[in-house]
Amino acid sequence: MINVIGYHTTKFGEQWNKSLFDLISEAIHGVIKEMKIDKEEINAVFFGNMLAGILENNVHGGSKISEILKTHVPMYRVEAACASGGLAFNLACQYLNANKNSTVLVVGGEKMTDYPTPKVITALSAAASGEEQEAGLTFPGLYAMLARIYLHTYGYTEEHLAAVSVKNHFHGTFNDKAQFQKEISIEDVLKSPYIADPLKVLDASPISDGASAILVTNNRHIAHRIDKKMTVLSSQAATDSISLSGRAYLDRLDSTVQAGNKAFSDAKLSPIDISVAEVHDCFSIAEILAMEDLGFFKKGEGGERMKNYETMFGKTNGLVVNTSGGLKASGHPVGATGVKQIGEVFLQLTQQAGKRQVKKIKYGLTHNVGGSGGTAVVNIFSS
């Protein structure tokens, strides 16, 4: 049995006075201190990061973490674009399945705000295909194409997209680690400037700094001494064509469908069993697609059900989605996102989520996407 036994995150946002490894050190030492784990009990570290090699000319971050921890255990740096943190956790689970009585640290981090926005956008575009980059496409443009196809196919409007941002900003008001802690309205979203029609500034997640860390173990003696923990029922990853032109469909992400189906089958659960989920909302359309691709909504129903705020905290007795504020309000320091998602579900399932605590929950899910769907990781947990 694999258990998540601890979580710590920095605040997400513009961390001008901290470097990438200041943030990573804060997250690592935070979780070790809170869980009263001796660093000698950690057998390996999995580090999710996308941009340090491009923005900071540093691709050997694992060794820096070794320096921070003053340890010689194996360090694995994992890169899968915006799914780097989620895939780091997936690989950590595989490590634990192969190594009995082990404990690992999974940490994700990114430092993005120190650099000019055009440089960051170019760096993020490295997660797209060469052909898409040569055509001048950035991720707002790629997701705008998905949004335009979805709206046209199912007869929705930009208001349906805007409802996603309204919900997640509302959730962000309950999270003191979120980048944005202010409610917004449909009108606010619709009045914000277009970045790639039909997507606007308030349809998009921000450029962010931050780091998150979790401790994961299959050591029964360590797990036994921890009161608050959650069990990993499944961790599944899937891939798809990096280019939109290579996809069979453009109103869904097949990597999410594949990873989700495998996770539910492995966990022996169905979408109706899930009470809380963190899904990848890098743009408003991404959350709508995720909810359909994971089976929470039927195909084509996502727009209307989002506009009805069916997954908003305090307005439903069923599934609540992105209680952290999602990428949209909590922030999106790329390598940290997948780890923070797991940490948020950990807080929920261990009744530590404070003002945003969902009641009567047993199962939670996280969904982390790389690029425009080239990689997806879906994890399912129980209390």
From TrEMBL:
Residues 4-218 form the Thiolase N-terminal domain. Residues 239-382 form the Thiolase C-terminal domain. One of its GO terms (molecular function) is acyltransferase activity, transferring groups other than amino-acyl groups. This is Acetyl-CoA acetyltransferase. It comes from Candidatus Roizmanbacteria bacterium RIFCSPLOWO2_01_FULL_38_11. The lineage of its organism: Bacteria, Candidatus Roizmaniibacteriota.
